[in-house]
Amino acid sequence: MTDSFPQILRRDPRAEWIARNRLHPLHDSVMAANGAEVRGPSGLLRKNPHVIGFIGPNGIKRIDRANTSSGLMAGKKRSSTTQDVELPLHQVIDPTGYIVVVPDMVGGRLTTHDKDILGLGHSLIKEYADNMAVVAVCFGESKETQFELAGVDRLIHLSSAEYEGFSPEARLAALQHIHQIYQPKHWLFPDSINGGTDLASRLSARIGERAAAQAWQVSIAQTVCRGASASLDIKRETPRILMLLEECGNAINETRHEVLPLTLDRFEMTDTRIEDNGLVDVDPNAVPLAEAEFILSAGNGIHNWEQFHACAKALGATEGASRVAVDDGFMPRARQVGASGTWVTAQVYLAVGISGAIQHMQGIGQCDKVIAINTDAGCDMVKRADLAVIGDSEEVLQALMALANERKGVLLDDALPKEENHVA
Ligand SMILES: Cc1cc2nc3c(=O)[nH]c(=O)nc-3n(C[C@H](O)[C@H](O)[C@H](O)COP(=O)(O)OP(=O)(O)OC[C@H]3O[C@@H](n4cnc5c(N)ncnc54)[C@H](O)[C@@H]3O)c2cc1C
Known about the structure:
This protein is an alpha/beta fold and 424 residues long. It has helices spanning 13-20, 27-34, 112-128, 147-150, 168-182, 196-207, 305-315, 323-327, 358-363, 380-384, 393-415, and strands spanning 37-39, 45-47, 89-90, 97-101, 132-139, 154-158, 186-190, 212-218, 222-227, 232-237, 241-244, 256-257, 260-261, 294-298, 318-321, 348-352, 369-374, 387-390. α4 (147-150) links the parallel β5 and β6 (154-158).
């Protein structure tokens, strides 16, 4: 009986609409249900190139750069469904060798750059087809809680006071000691201004191994490095020490790792001549927008510009702006964030009165945490944000400024010498 009826295709227009709207809160769950193939409005089966793992016509596999699929982005609505999934444990018993990664750990946490490099460590081990482990060496205070999801098989955490701040001599002594004991197959460092390049260069000079800088395609046989201001590629044999660019590898997102501690026995520390006197106060607006860690960005929803500048000053934030704010003459062109402005990589991007047009979103794709202040709870910036405050920009900035100043007052009090510390 059923054979005489044609197969009726049942469509769900709402699900199709959500599948097309990547910013919809239910987008991920609908896509997960549909997989990589979606039935289009014409009835044709469409392949969805945005699904993680999709292999494009050029043979390149789409990776989960933001790690949203493994539930690593705590606080994001989209990860809540996957957070409980226990990933398979990757164990390395009695490793035959080591690949050592020295992550930057900016702010005490692994950066996306660090995670790319840990991922690369594992792909090199796969190529070697050997029972090797990836070791991470961390200095100073660590706030990282997800080493196991980033691919760390073994961890050397040197947390004593001599490794805090800018301490290249102490760190180099530790790396040299690790080199003598473990004889790593490779040393992997981020090629970055956050310490990776500096340490890698020092280690390279100390142990007499020529490092590869600006490396971005690495196999066990050959390394491709960017040269001449990234205008050409230089191929060379893969050396022991590598300074790696972002996106040199795929961050781990399918396995859990053991993070077993490796201890170092005592070693002789040479005299240190460099003293870290702490950070110097700089004008946040003197920091190039592309390098700023904390950006307060203004859009068309700012109506009190004096207050905005005062708030940026109180928060110690670098100022950014949407194109509308720039076109209207409220902010200089150099402050524009977005596709036709600057692409920023801030740890925190605070968008005030910015709707979240795609051209603006392109510029903030690499930001770690986005906070939106907007009157429109349904705008794209609020959908993208990790935290949103729905309210009038002027009122919220006023409250924020008051809090910042209050906190500064507390810090100033803390900084004042206490009576018992006075020397008679
Ligand atoms: C080729 C091209 C390139 C472009 N490049 C860029 C680019 O690089 N960067 C860029 O930013 N744009 C760019 N644009 C422009 C982009 O399309 C948007 O027009 C622009 O980003 C919108 O800026 P906005 O969000 O500040 O303004 P609007 O879209 O007007 O949004 C204002 C927001 O403020 C909110 N708001 C209003 N009043 C208040 C209040 N009192 N309190 C709190 N919130 C309030 C509103 O709800 C709204 O969400 C480009 C466009 C084109 C065509």
